[in-house]
Amino acid sequence: MTAPQAPQKGSLWRTARAVGWSFFGVRKNSAFQDDVSKLNPLHIIAVGLIAVMLFVGGLILVVRWVVAS
Known about the structure:
Shape: elongated
Strand content: under 5%
Helix content: over 70%
Mean pLDDT: 85
């Protein structure tokens, strides 16, 4: 008999990918359930905050570029 395997923990790349798909609102329920079981909520929050800051910073840069033109 083999011992049951411990659930794999999510990596930083997996967390970033899950947050990215959430930004677009495109996510399968099965993938969502898989993420819920494997990803650390604190990592999701941290990656989400960084993604929001990058998104807002990008918007500010685009607005400055359009206004300056």
